[in-house]
UniProtKB/TrEMBL annotation:
This is NADPH-dependent FMN reductase. It holds the Pfam family FMN_red. Gene3D superfamilies: 3.40.50.360. Residues 4-145 form the NADPH-dependent FMN reductase-like domain. One of its GO terms (cellular component) is cytosol. GO terms for molecular function: FMN binding; oxidoreductase activity. It comes from the Bacteria.
């Protein structure tokens, strides 16, 4: 059974490196038979948060915002590919997700973190765990963390070097955990809709 999984990425930087990880995760999920789609905050380009999607009367939200709301609401689960900016959240990704709330409810999320240095974005992953939980998502226990992202992929976008090998080895458990929670959440949503 193909699961619909959205892979969120949020860097706006000119020489962004995390897009390599986000693209690789999309392809790795597709190779497992899932319907995976990249949601790139820079490409969606929502304005700095003024009104959430749910703040607009039906049919009055900007077209890009409404289209993404429908896409999120139709998804089975999510992967958040998160870099670490000064020990915290990427502002572009945080701004994107803050436009939505009920669309994320009662669905699982997995976190894949990265950094240019040796710590693999773990402080950002910790902050995202709290944020995603507050938004009504169940965050899976198996994280994916990638250090030294600049050298972790070859020119064809495949994992390379010691960090890339670790990524390749860790991915199956990461994806299996997300798949289990997607199936469990779908069964529960079939019994009762979220109360908000």
């Amino acid at each position: 059974m193909a699961r619909t999984i959205l892979v969120f990425y949020g860097s706006y930087r000119r020489d962004r490196q995390g897009i390599k990880l986000a693209d690789w995760i999309v392809e790795a999920l597709r190779a497992r038979g899932d319907d995976a789609t990249l949601i790139d905050a820079r490409a969606v380009d929502l304005p700095i948060l003024d009104r959430r999607h749910s703040d607009y009367p039906p049919g009055e939200a900007p077209a890009a915002m409404a289209a993404l709301a429908a896409t999120i609401a139709a998804a089975d689960g999510f992967v958040f590919v998160v870099g670490e900016y000064n020990g915290g959240l990427q502002p572009g990704l945080k701004n994107l997700v803050d436009h939505y709330l009920p669309e994320f409810a009662w669905r699982p999320a997995a976190i894949a973190s990265y950094s240019a240095g040796p710590f693999a974005g773990v402080r950002s992953a910790t902050a995202w765990r709290t944020t995603l939980g507050a938004m009504g998502m169940v965050v899976t226990s198996t994280a994916l963390s990638l250090a030294r992202i600049g050298g972790a992929f070859d020119t064809d976008g495949r994992p390379a070097g010691e960090d890339g090998v670790r990524l390749d080895r860790a991915f199956p458990r990461f994806a299996d955990d997300l798949a289990w929670w997607i199936d469990a959440a779908a069964a529960q949503r079939a019994k009762a809709a979220p109360p908000y």
